Amino acid sequence: MTRIILTVLGLLLSTGIVYAQEKSSPEKVRIAIATNSLAFMVPFVAKDRGLYLKHGSDVELIQMRPNIAMAALLGGDIHYAELIGSVIRSAARGLPVRAISTGIKAPFFTIIAQNKYKNIKELKGATIGLTSIGGTNHISTRMTLRHFGFDPDRDMKFLAIGDEKLVYDAFKFGRIDAVVLAPPFSLQLKREGYPMLANTADYVVIPFSGLGTTIERIKSNRAQVKRLLKAEIEALSLIHSNAAGTTEVIRKRFNMDEKLARESYDAVVNAFSRDGRVPLDGVDILLQIEKDAKQIPATVTPQMVVDPSLVDEVLKETPR
Predict the structure, then answer these.
(1) Topology of 110-202 in CATH?
(2) For residues 65 and 35, what is the distance between their CA atoms, to the nearest angstrom?
């Protein structure tokens, strides 16, 4: 009898240990990013510095075009998208998604041209290479060009090429007149002597990257969403406070030398949010662009496409 009791106790204890291990194992989460660029430094830092795992999430970052990412998000093939512009525009069209945080306050793209162009006014009639049409890369470029008096629909042609490395390569082979790139690719072209014609951050203040998901996930798995936000808000803090650690992430991610990695960090660090909150005034600018193009109803407001409550809760729960 004693042997039976001990055996049963042993089984119960081992089952409890297995259950505890399963309960504490990190939850697998799939997040879409658009390109391998510094626009997604927040998830890169959160993953590479172990912050997602620290907060209980085993994150897979999956690169895909924004339109495909939105379809995958709605279909459940991915759980989140770091494509705040696409999420906002989708929500404004009535799709059941919401933007919940932002990592970057302004898009830090540079318009770079072949050597025959000496200033931005000479770009009339040029072909400009971009990662995609309709994304923040495209929108911020159009807004910047309008500042210089262009009609982007009439005065130039935009060509969607894909990943920033592909855009960079197409430009280097002379297949396009100008490109719009973020560091490190913009800085590499600057090193090589190509003219830097304009920086979009000087003319455009809109949310650049940030987390979005479905309304259903916010309702049904709020704890998971908050775990991701805790990791990304901690990543933002690290980006601002730890230049060496962030530079190391950049160096490894982009396989570059230490000097270029630090130059890239210095070029973008001030564009990053400190707390992850989505700036509603910047959202309003994005919405107005869509309204002017008759793409969304005039009655859509920032409060209809952004759910700020999760970041607010995380910030209250996190020691500062």
Answers:
(1) D-Maltodextrin-Binding Protein; domain 2 (3.40.190)
(2) 8
The domain made up of 26-105+207-317 has a fold known as D-Maltodextrin-Binding Protein; domain 2 (3.40.190)
Q: Residue with structure tokens 């042609």?
A: 157
pTM above 0.85, yes or no: no
Residue 88 pLDDT greater than 60, yes or no: yes
Are 90 and 69 in contact, with CB atoms under 8 Å apart? no
End-to-end distance of the chain based on CA atoms, in angstroms?
57
- Alpha carbon distance 175, 170 (integer Å): 6
**Residue whose tokens read 């069209």:** 93
Phi-psi region of 129 (alpha: psi -120 to 50; beta: other; left: phi over 0): beta
Given the structure tokens 């798995």, which residue do they identify?
221
Residue 231 contacts residue 52 (beta carbons within 8 Å): yes
| Percentage above 70 pLDDT, the chain | 92
As given in the structure block, the two tokens for residue 219 are: 């309702």
Q: How do residues 247-294 score in pLDDT, each as one tens digit? A: 999 999 999 899 999 999 999 998 899 999 999 999 998 899 889 889
Per-residue pLDDT tens digits for 224-241: 999 999 999 999 999 999
Rounded to 5°, angle at Cα 80 from 278 and 309: 35
| pLDDT for the residue numbered 193 | 95
Show the beta-strand stretches assigned E in the chain: 27-33, 57-63, 80-81, 97-99, 110-113, 127-130, 157-160, 178-181, 196-199, 212-214
CA–CA distances in Å: residue 173 to residues 130, 170, 242, 316:
15, 5, 37, 51
Residue 303, token pair as written in the block: 């409060």
